[in-house]
Amino acid sequence: MDFVQNFPAVSILLCLFAGIISSGLRKKAARSVNIILILIVTFLSVCTLFYTMGTGEAFVYVMGRFPAPWGNEIRAGVLGPLMALFFCVIMLLSLEGGRKKLVDEVEEEKTFLYYVLMDLLLASLLALIYTNDLFTAYVFVEINTIAACGLIMIRQNGRTIEAAARYMIMSLLGSGLLLMGICMLYDLTGHLLMSNIREQVIYLYSAGEYRIPLLVTIALMSVGLAIKSALFPFHAWLPDAYGYSTVSSAAVLSSLVSKGYILLLIKIIYRVIGFDVFYNSRIIDVLFAFGLMGMIFGSVSAIRENDVRRMIAFSSVAQIGYIYMGIGMGTQAGMTASVFHILSHAATKSLLFIAAIGLTDVSGGSRKLVELTGAAYRNKWAGAAFTVGSLSMVGVPLFSGFISKLLFSQAAVQNGTKMLPALIVLGISTILNAIYFMKTVIRIYTPVESGKYKGIQFMKMKRYCLTLICFVVLNVILGVFSQPIVDLIEQGLVMFS
Predict the structure, then answer these.
(1) Residue 239 resides in a domain
(2) What are the CA-CA distances from residue 88 to residues 81, 92, 252, 319, 356 (Å)?
(3) What is the pLDDT at residue 71?
(4) Domain extent at residue 487
């Protein structure tokens, strides 16, 4: 075994140990541990990515050298470390962008807990990416849920506590359905390792045995993860959770948490159920339909919002609909488009949340759109960054959102039965995106009488402005140099099987 094959397991364990260590540290020390941890995991992810690209195949790492069912397996191809690398970058930039605001939003004696939760959240995301054991995936789903709930309510005002309660209720419902599906699958196959389950599922399906139980199992796991990833109509918790939590929490939750659950669903489709079996179950058509409805409903709800953060949150409902639309197409092209949109949405939505807080800070702290009039003149860096994020969401060339919509369009054209509804809804959603994002951009660039609010200078918010620049550069890289990334995604999906 090559030494690099240890890196995925080491990354997960480091995050767990960092969470334990940080629980006994003060604010600055806990923050330093978190930053060092993310940098180390980033390095390990880069090494793993280059290793899998060099070998051209996935590898399996058996933890503890114990075979199933006593041991646990980690499986890594190209897609796993690529996602781990991207998630680390997004988390680091989100934390740096909201660091100054965190001082005002979280009590000083609880700041260390904030970084403990971030460490655990990163551990759970890495585990969802790498694990080859279905029950282990469920365990880390619950760790992810607890950490995310803590990040929502740590601000401790009436709205965040209510949002955390709604999030917990919906998450427990989703987790319960997922667990029921895993239990039924274990009863049918006698395995918990994903690759072993897939062999048994394909055998049972080809033999015509247990068709109804298999259908119910697939439905339970799909609905459970759809609830947890806030697919329409299971999105009721999302606007408040993203809208009233700390800015760093909102950026991380919108960019990473829901995407972790979607990646787990994609892994289940390829590695547990088998793509052909999942496609023939027709559940994929249900995901497609709800994805289309989410694209429209999320955009309409965003148009009706007067709160900029809730508007961005409702936009996430629409973007999650895009991802499920791609999955629901039931083609390799559709799945590639969905995975790329996970990257694009993560980079863009974090940028929008971080930029929005800069605009509200120079507008008397108000998040109402009317109060943001002229905010881009008072904070030019946040205004420019928000504009870039908005253009990306609309699908303007040179930005990542354009590539996403291009890939979805190409995937739709290759799908004869779903081409027309996909293209129609894609067009409508794009128009709606332009309405609420461009309305906001026009508002922040509308001249207003000077003197009401003070502006800011680059040197006084140097770290914040540099974070915005990094987000913009990342977005442009995804938009201009997309083909190598698309190739890696396609290669990674093949290794998923």
Answers:
(1) no
(2) 10, 6, 10, 21, 22
(3) 61
(4) 282-497
